[in-house]
Amino acid sequence: MINNDVLRSVRYMLDLSDNKVVEIIKLSDADSPIDKSDVQAFLKKDDEEGYAECGNQVLAHFLDGLVFYHRGKDESLPPRPIEKRVTNNVVMKKLRVAFQLKDVDMHQAFQDAGFPISKPELTALFRQPGHKNFRLCGDQLLRNFLKGLTLRVRGNG
C-alpha cells in the first residue's frame, strides 16, 4: 500500500490532528524536520496540488511513535533500528504492537471488515522474511485490516 494511504487511514482511525501526527513522529525521532505543513501535504490525494510523497523513513518513525504513544517508551532499552523499507507486513506488525492485539483481535478485525482469514494465513504474515512459511501481505489484506481496526477503534456507529 502507498505510505500516504497508510498514514491517512491511521490518522482517520484515531481522529488525529495534523499537530498530533507531528508529535507522534517526534516521539520516535526527536530531531525530525517534519512539521504540520509536511503532514498536510502527505494527507492530500496524489492529484491535488501540494501533494508530497510520504517516505519510508517518515512512515517508520510515525509507526514507531504510535507504539510509544499507545504503550509508552522504555528508556532502559536501546532504541530499535528504524525500518529502511516499510512493507505491508511491517505496517501490520507495528499496528499489532501499538494496539496490543492478540491473534483473536486480529482475526476479529478481518472478520469485521468482511475479510476473514485463517490462523495459518495470519501467522505467515508475521514470520521472518526468510522463513519457508512467510507470506507477503498484499494491499487488499492490509486495507481490510485497517478497515476492521478502524471499526474496532472508532466503534461501529
Task: Walk me through the structure.
α2 packs across α4 and α6 crosses α8. The mean pLDDT is 93. Helix content is 58%, strand content 0%. It is mostly helical and 157 residues long. The protein has 2 domains: 69 residues; 67 residues.
Summarize the structure.
By secondary structure, the chain is an all-alpha fold. 58% of the residues lie in helices and 0% in strands. It has 2 domains: 3-71; 88-154.
Summed up, the domain count is: 2
Record field, number of beta strands: 0
Main pleated-sheet profile: none
Unreliable parts: none
Helix content: 55-70%
What fraction strand?
A: under 5%
Task: Please tell me how large the radius of gyration is.
Answer: 16 Å
Strand-and-helix sequence, N→C? Answer: HHHHHHHH
Shape: globular
For the termini, the CA-CA separation is 26 Å
| Total helical elements | 8
Mean pLDDT: 93
Question: What is the structural class?
Answer: mainly alpha
How are the SSEs placed, and which strands pair?
Elements: H1 3-14, H2 18-28, H3 36-43, H4 56-71, H5 88-98, H6 103-112, H7 119-125, H8 139-154
For the structure shown, list the relevant keywords.
0% strand, 2 domains, 157 residues, mainly alpha
